[in-house]
Fold these 2 entries.
Entry 1:
Amino acid sequence: MSQLLIAVALMLLLALLLGAILGYASVRFRVKADPLVDKIDAILPQTQCGQCSHPGCRPYAEALAAGSDDINKCPPGGEDGIRKLAELLGVEFKPFGADAPQPKAKAVALIDEATCIGCTLCIQACPVDAILGAAKQMHTVIASECTGCELCLAPCPVDCIRMIPPGSELTNWKWRYPTIPIRNVSSGATR
Amino acid sequence: MMPLFDFPGGIHPPENKAQSSATPIRQAPLPPQLHVALRQSMGNAARPCVAIGDRVAKGQLIASADGRLSAAVHAPTSGVVSAIAPQPFAHPSGLPELAITLDSDGEERWIERQPLHDWQQRSGAKIRDFLAQMGIVGLGGAVFPSHLKLGLKLGVSPLETLVINGAECEPYISCDDRLMRERADAICDGIAVTRHALQARQVLIGIEDNKPQAIAAMQAAAAAHGFGVVAVPTKYPSGGAKQLIRILTGKAIPHGVRATEHGVQCFNVATVYAIGRAVLHGEPLISRIVTLTGAVEAAANVEALIGTPLDQLLALVRPHRDSHEVVMGGPLMGFTLPDLAAGLTKAGNCLLVKSPALFPPRPPAQACIRCGDCASACPVSLQPMDLFWFAKAKNFDKAQQWQLFDCIECGACSYVCPSQIPLVDYYRFAKSEIWAAERDKNAANLARQRHEFRQFRLQRDKAEKAQRLADKAAQAAARQAASHSAAANVAPASDPKQAAIAAAMARAAAQREAAPLPEQHSSGLNDAKQAAIAAAMARAAARKAAADEAKAASGQPPAPPPSSSGLDDAKQAAIAAAMARAAARKAAADQARANQQPDP
Ligand code: SF4
Ligand code: SF4
Ligand code: SF4
Ligand code: SF4
């Protein structure tokens, strides 16, 4: 009988001890931010363009985490991005809507420096502070920081900003997918 | 006889070296114009340090290294800089690269050469710096700057074994073979310098046993220095650095680990030759030996200046009429040159002319039959058929898990594949896709940081503006109170008190105004950012307190400038917060003292 009591007491003690440790750990090591939002945000391309109708990628990530928006709203992420989101969130892949903005090739903004009047409107629009300039001074885009969000195009009163494809260089050149060269066999194939 | 080790896999393709190795090294004629590309190593292209129209001497520095992995570039001959512009470049992309075009004056007038005569008394670091100035890069093909290989932190100090790579395992190429036969003494001088710089205990020179003359010449030259010359069995790719180290020392260097950590370092024979020329003769790397072979009349090895247009080099050996493409490097690892107007680079060990007769086109690829031949040929013990499958399906994560980046692109697997699958093309494709994804990821991280910082900056500006307004209001209130009290003849001691009350009210108002902001965007900002905002507000509050009690708060530190780089935000914010806290505390204490003093 006493053995039973000892066993029960021991178990109780152990349970209390472990419970206390767990309770302490859950307070001490609490994960503050919502990890799902971070995970989604890591997939989003950070173009910060607002095409998803959220004021930036993070708010879209929050909306996705809350389940209040669809996964096919981010054109800069491309279909690849949708696929990754679908995988992370455990939902079906969903193509871009037919009348929604479609993905396009990445480009960077270029300010025509001769036309720029130095109004600073584009600086205020740029979500990543990629434009350098000051009032009544010529402005310029730091190409390596530009995400290609196009938010600076509309505010420019003299329409001197345009998007150009980023230059092809050795540092960003890629090997092509191996394909079988197509040979013209029409002369031999007629027989 | 020391024991030799073996590496897994490997193949025995036809050697085809005799065509070019029979005749001595010839001097290529001086070209009228040279295109010296600025990208002569891994890493950044060098930065030109001459201007168009400048007259330069042979061996003069014309572009200096830009960053760690970059290498300096020197004028291969004397002449006039006629252009600094993009030129065709020896690279599979066919993209032009910035090059310095030099019109040679035919004088070959050297700059004053400054050898490092007392290298034996110099430290490894000094020799390393000297080689960096001389633009020495690995001439085996990877063009890794040599001084970095001397400078790596030694895991086992001093270095146990210095391996000199004279294996030259790829078919057709014979430039190292001829170099060893003809200039063995100079190579050994270079080895001696390298050994001194690395403080290596022993030197092993590995040469494939299909080059008996080179072995004999090197043995004769190395005997005086006490270097070991080892004939290694002919098997491709024994000339891979890790493979040769494995053969000679039995050490398998895992991926991502530097050979020095295992007490070994490996240099190509042509590289140590260049090191010797630089240190003993003061000659920077401005020429190299190139094998010109394949579908040509008279295959040969020529010593050519860097920047010599490749078509002029090829003209020396008269390519066959039916030749249709030229490969730089060997048949297994080389790439097809997109434009023969490009200048010779430091990486150009061989120009292989291909003709349909000599190199019949590869039959169309069939499906993989999973025969496993590729796996047994792979020198790194990978599973090429699986890598191929993942690369083809663009399943890059999986390819990386299966050690895609251990692949040395030796081409052994493509060579043996009975289905004629161009396996290496798939690996190159997959690797460059993975690198591109990595770049995108970094760009996204940067954009995220900059966006968050911008958000923080906007809020900070807003908070500071609100604070300024509150300050003004407080001052106005204080003035009003002062005039009021003066008019009412109240004791002057209450003045500061009333001002303090007014200030506190203004502060509270400002806090009310500013407080909702962080909450509103709290999700977008991490703790560090919030701390920074709090710090900015605390700073503003401290400034205000200081303004109220101007004489008491003389010890307030200047507010640190807001960090502009997103990286150090956390640290800087923490420091700023701590400083602001301290300042606020001090100001409060001073204020309390100031308030106390008039009371008694
Ligand atoms: S649409 Fe633009 S703002 Fe929205 S998640 Fe994509 S990149 Fe970010
Ligand atoms: S410069 Fe223009 S396109 Fe580029 S990130 Fe800024 S607002 Fe977007
Ligand atoms: S050698 Fe070719 S066919 Fe055989 S398993 Fe490898 S890839 Fe497949
Ligand atoms: S190319 Fe890569 S996978 Fe193929 S045999 Fe060589 S190391 Fe192995």
Entry 2:
Amino acid sequence: MDLDFSIIIPYFNLFLQGALVTVKITALAVFMGIVIGLFVGMGKMSRISIIRWICIAYVEVIRGTPLLVQILIFYFGIPQIIGIDIPEYPAAVMALGINSGGYVAEIIRGGILAVEKGQMEAARSLGMSHAMAMRYIILPQAFKKMIPPLGNEFVTLLKNSSLATTIGFGELTRAGQIVAGNTYKPFEPYFVVAAFYLVMTLAFSQLTGYLERRLAESD
Amino acid sequence: MIEVRDLYKNFGHLEVLKGINNKVEKGEVVVVIGPSGSGKSTFLRCLNLLEKPTRGEVYIEGKNLMDPRTNVNQLRQDVGMVFQHFNLFPHKKVIENVTLAPIKVKGEKPREAEEKAMELLSRVGLADKAQNFPSQLSGGQKQRVAIARALAMNPKIMLFDEPTSALDPEMIKEVLDVMKDLAKDGMTMVVVTHEMGFAREVGDRVIFMDEGRIVEEGTPDEIYNNPQNPRTKDFLSKIL
Ligand SMILES: Nc1ncnc2c1ncn2[C@@H]1O[C@H](COP(=O)(O)OP(=O)(O)OP(=O)(O)O)[C@@H](O)[C@H]1O
Ligand SMILES: [Mg+2]
């Protein structure tokens, strides 16, 4: 057993680029997830029952099926139906984003429900519409409560984005595969890949912790 | 100003209001008393549609609240409400608590809204707290801000639901004083409170509610000194 990490050096840029791509698709997917989650999360509390049911179904389907299968359906399955190939990059982002939407919806719903009932009543008693009260009173308070779980969601998605290698998408894990193939040495490249993920998730947890403390100051 | 006819409210199978009839005149201060669970809060909340009556009619300045064409948001601007637990917006500074609705709902210019808010905050004795967050205030101060916030919409009617019952005893007076000023200025008020001093000093009428009905009403003197109904007597003997 002889480990030789110097074989990594020529490929360092490849890892770095892979890591950047990973952060980028994660950020895009989480952003998409927040937009979807906002609508789906509020939709689950809608008074209109069709909207409520659609949103409930969305969350159940997303959370009840493996992400890997969702990615495969997106990349291989959808093109078969619509007759147009979807490139790896948008396929990966959309599959991850739509997946994230299901989880973020629950985070957003939880955040909204955690805001005291009296807040909505006070806003309404001042003549604000429901939408206004949501926008100025409820959501800003709910977002504060959502930051820790949203941080978790980002970290989870960052790790899960490695599943995009299965459709040949060039992110961090894929970089490890390429290097392992070229050097015939799997341990060193995958070890480095793991280290990259760890550094990124730790850095991100630190950031959320900091944000949380900052926002707690006005309470 | 306010007219309530045959008002019923059910929560599922629970009948909470069982036929309330009443009229509040302009400038009148009506105090509502009664045991816990008798429906005082529900009655008050039906007056600005925070609760939707099951049946009956409520008129505010001649406008029927039960009419689907009535613009509820518009109507609520004329009916201020003060809550037991203040319900200030914790993420907004005191001044923003007061200016938010005038700016967003009425479209007032921020400058004007702020000037008016400062006037109101001075009136409740809290001009120096304008830039603080609610979490930095005592309970009595919070409630006075809540009153200023409601007044900023220039309401014609003010509803108070046990505004002092969540306060430490030493803070009750500062809130009652603000409310008394308001009453003396001619505000139409419906106040759920067991503060007899307040009722006697500025109350025009006291309503005693029990089990979803108005059991007895009269001037503060009549109700506190000479109650007719045995249930009123029983209730008063417990709280005095
Ligand atoms: N949203 C609700 N859903 C179900 N039941 C309710 C609801 N709000 C009030 N009730 C019930 O209606 C009854 C009357 O409540 P209400 O709050 O009007 O009484 P109250 O006279 O204000 O009492 P308190 O002095 O304790 O504030 C109570 O039995 C209460 O449990
Ligand atoms: Mg009550």
